[in-house]
Known about the structure:
By secondary structure, the chain is α/β, with parallel strands linked by helices. It has helices spanning 11-22, 48-51, 56-59, 126-135, 149-160, 176-193, 289-304, 369-378, and strands spanning 3-7, 28-33, 69-73, 77-81, 86-89, 94-96, 99-102, 106-108, 120-121, 141-145, 164-169, 197-200, 204-208, 215-218, 223-225, 228-231, 235-237, 253-254, 266-268, 273-277, 282-284, 316-321, 324-330, 337-344, 349-356, 359-366.
Amino acid sequence: MQKVAIVGASLAGLAAARALRGQSFTGEIIAIGAERHHPYDRPPLSKDFLTGACTVDDLALSDDEDLGIDWRLGTAATRLDPRRRSIHLADGQEIQVDGVIVATGARARRPAHADGLAGVHTLRTLDDALTLRDELRTTGRLVVIGAGFIGAEVASSARSLGWDVTVVEGLPTPLAGPLGPEMGALCAQLHADHGVRLKTGTPVSALLGSDRIEAVELADGVRLPADLVVAGIGAIPNVEWLDGSGLTVDGGVVTDAAGATGLPTVVATGDCAVSFSPFAGRAVRSEHWTHALDHPATAVATLLGATAPDTGKAPYFWSDQYGVRLQFAGHREPGDTVRIVEGDPEQRSFLAVYERGGHPVAVLGMNQPRLFTRWRRQLRAVPQEA
Ligand code: FAD
């Protein structure tokens, strides 16, 4: 293999380039990125970057001159043609390659009826964050739609800047999916303790305003006046460009655990890929920073026909909200039990373990990094019942 294209120039794409060189690939690497920026770190975008505690320069993932990458930035791949072994770009170029690493990640889901309405934002890219940071320079009434990680972090950042913040969430608690209702309730308390109003259980029905957002209407008829809206309602994998390529796409590019697709010269990794998780017992799209950092080495080994490193680590993510670090590893399913094994939620410092059939399947830490790491290491996938 002489020429490899990495499509998607973000964390997984950069990690793939590092892995190619680390695994002695001496051929040509072309990195194609829809964004105009070199790879940068997304987690600070909802945290220190919004509050002004870090700058654009602080986000840079690295100076990768020595990787010898041919960067093609600011132009998206529009088509993969496996028969001709080529990739078509939006600017009209067609690039012939021997191997392809798909690392096109995901984009933020936009709320319905937001088009043409100023003051309604999503947050996925540096450009999104620059625009939102500008809007946050004044203060006013912010409505955050969705109490997931991005929504909670934006609420926390905006509150620290003096905004009057309301978070609306259709489910009964924040983070009900990943953390479950008991731990979700503790996250709800975090919002309340910092003067953020949280409205749960009622979905948004409309965004009101003529040119600019004026209010958010809920399904029960309540209208929340808003000068600014940020929606954190999930992400959609960037896979449309693969239509007609012959790859299987089902909520992401379908791969095995080592990143292999149905085409021997194409692998996929990071937020765009769906693969079987022994922890979840089904195929999932992992949307976590650590996965996008670690998994590309496995996908690269698969592409190069080498032995793939172990992929058996428990999924892991963290979130910083209101000065609290949340860390979660493993996978929770409805019906799992959860108990606090150390610390005190009142003190914002505890460790909780989720169990299924007596096995620990997931662990949540709030400001308990050491204890969390110890428990995280012990997590093993629970054998699935036949
Ligand atoms: P992405 O980072 O989505 O990058 C994909 C890249 O591919 C993008 O640059 C995109 O423009 C490009 N692309 C898309 N389509 C094409 C195309 N057709 N052609 C060329 N290029 C294309 N995770 C945590 O674990 N903890 C956190 O605290 C945390 N905080 C986060 C905060 C924010 C605001 C966001 C947005 C994410 C956060 N994450 C966090 C998630 C983490 O950042 C992602 O899991 C990670 O960025 C995924 O990396 P990726 O390279 O797979 O995809």
